[in-house]
Design a protein that fits this description.
Layout: H1 6-22, E1 26-33, E2 37-43, H2 55-72, E3 78-82, H3 93-98, E4 103-108, E5 126-134, E6 137-142, E7 164-168, E8 173-178, E9 195-199
Parallel strand pairs: 2-3
Antiparallel strand pairs: 1-2, 3-9, 4-5, 4-8, 5-6, 6-7
């Protein structure tokens, strides 16, 4: 199977985003994986209310994309359309604004280096903490204190570990996702991930 070039991948993303948006949904993520799988994640556009993607929604998008991908001449072996799940990726400004105050897993493109706080390795790139918005961009705050083991008693006299913070801009981010934690600071449990997979053959010899 031939791989699309950069221009082709951008064209694919635009075509899929238009098709998904035309049905009233938002394209969260799109990726190609081994074996010819084309995987899409969709969600409802954020309007201040929590709505969940169900199997019927995935079926509607799958049927529409069958037609769009055929018209665009995109070759794939399998198409999978699914809901974001509790580890939803954060892909742009709107996602970061939407999930301010929630726990996220953040991976930077490069180590923090000189920004490293006391006790934080300069070569560190991965963090789990609370997403915050600042005047200059974004910030993640966290504590490196290990979680207590089941049944472990915590002394009330023990001082909590200091809270650390790291400022960043979206250009620094390699990957960001909601941490798979339920009911954190008011975050409601999300519906289980829903997936609708369609298997079809790509064009022979491509």
């Amino acid at each position: 199977m031939k791989k699309l070039g950069l221009q082709g991948e951008m064209g694919l993303h635009e075509a899929v985003e238009q098709a998904v948006g035309g049905l009233g949904f938002e394209l969260v993520d799109i990726e190609r994986t081994g074996g010819g799988l084309l995987r899409l994640t969709i969600d409802w556009p954020w309007d201040g209310t929590e709505r969940f993607i169900n199997a019927e929604d995935c079926e509607r998008v799958t049927r529409q994309l069958q037609f769009v991908l055929e018209v665009e001449g995109v070759d794939y072996a399998r198409l999978e359309v699914s809901s974001p799940g509790i580890d939803r990726p954060l892909k742009g400004v709107r996602d970061f604004e939407r999930f301010v105050g929630q726990l996220i897993d953040l991976t930077l493109k490069a180590p923090i280096g000189a920004q490293a706080a006391l006790g934080v390795a300069a070569n560190r790139k991965k963090f789990r903490g609370v997403l915050e918005q600042t005047e200059s961009g974004w910030q993640i705050s966290w504590s490196d204190e290990p979680l207590p083991k089941p049944g472990q008693k915590i002394s009330r006299k023990k001082a909590p570990a200091p809270l650390l913070a790291l400022g960043f801009v979206l250009e620094d981010v390699a990957q960001a996702r909601l941490a798979p934690v339920v009911d954190f600071k008011g975050r409601k449990p999300k519906a289980p991930g829903v997936s609708k997979e369609l298997e079809s053959r790509g064009k022979a010899g491509v």
